[in-house]
Structures are given as C-alpha cells and as structure tokens.
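We treat protein structure as text, and this decision shapes the records that our systems exchange. The tokens are whole numbers drawn from a learned vocabulary of local backbone shapes. One such record is reproduced below, unchanged from the form in which we store it:
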Amino acid sequence: MASSGRFPLAALFKWGGRKEDPPSSTSSVPVSEAGAEAIVASKVLPRVLKILGQVEAPVLMDLGPVVGPNIAFFGEELSCKIFVEDLFAVVEAHGAAGPRVLLPGALTSRISHPPESIDGILCWDLFDYLDKPSAQVLAARLAALLKSGGLLYGFFGSKPGQLTQYTRYTVEGSDRLRLRTAPATPTPRHTIVNRDIIRMFEGLVVSEYVLLKSNARETLFRKP
C-alpha cells in the first residue's frame, strides 16, 4: 500500500450536498475469490453509514491510502470532509528500514488533528501490522481524536502468521467491500484477543462485532 507522492502528509477532500435519495443497498454476497481480489459482504458498514448519516457534515479520517472510489462514495453519501492519513505507508517504510522501534512515534506524529475533532475513523486492518507498543500508542491517540458519539471502524485478524501483503479495501456499495492485495515487507501478525482490544481502546465501547468467514473480526467502536 504505497502512498501516492501527491499526498505526502494528509489529503483533504470536501464534498457538497448529501444525496437526497441514497442508492438502495446491494445484496450481501459471500466471499468470492478472483486472483488477488475478493468481494466480501459487510454487516457493519451499513451501521457506519447510518450513524454518520445522522451527523451534519461529518469529519472522517481514513488511515489507508487514497482510494478514489472510497472518497467519492463517502463524500456523496455523507457530504463529509475526509482526511486521508496513509499510515500503512508509515508502517511499510519502517518495516523496510529494519527494526520498528521508532514506529509508535512516527504513527502518532503523522496525525496532527486536535482532540475530539473527528466523527469517524476508518482503520481497515492496520492494527494487524503493528507490534504491541505501536498498537497501544496509536489506539490511545485515535480514541482521543473522536468526538462524543464518534466511531472507529476496523478489522482485526484472529489467526497468527506472517503477513506478506497489504489489503486495500474499496467500498463497492453500502454493504460490500472489494479487497485487493499488494506486497508488504514481511511482518508477524500481532493477533489481539478481544479483551485486549477493549482495553487498548479505552474510552470507546464496542457497538458492533462480526466474525467473517476469513476469521477477521469486523468491529465498530463508539465514543460515549
């Protein structure tokens, strides 16, 4: 997941009027493999859209790379402001350089937004690529960024193993995601058990939780 050179720090996208008639939800589909791609049905994404749809001009933060269809989808559906912070590129840069002892500071310094300024955070599966110190520091930083009632949407792997690729999530509808893979510097997956995830995101509560066929845990946190 290499970051585009046009967006060295953060990309900001702003959209105008929200759609008056959102498109009807696509029917849920099972996982379908197509080489390095898969389409998965999401049970949690519709909830994300419903919550953010009740906020006037919400502010979103996407921790993945710039994905054009996602910017268009959320912008048109929610009339939102979107900040893109490609933390996967930070992870990859530190992985390629060797030991990741400086990664916690690099992740948090990338995010310069003030506390309680964000309505929704899209984490995707970022935490699968982080060691425990990096995960704990970043989780605390993200929890502090959320406004009251804000949400954090992410995926957490449940099986240990060596990760050799990143997954790019592309929203294809209100309940569908297309997953594309890209090479990554090999790193052990930091599998976090549910109780440790809850502790790590202190100050947030788990609102939705779905175990997918891939054994990934699709999770939605809310800030009271």
About this structure: The helical segments are 45-52, 68-78, 87-97, 103-110, 132-145, 194-200. The chain has one domain: 11-16+31-222.
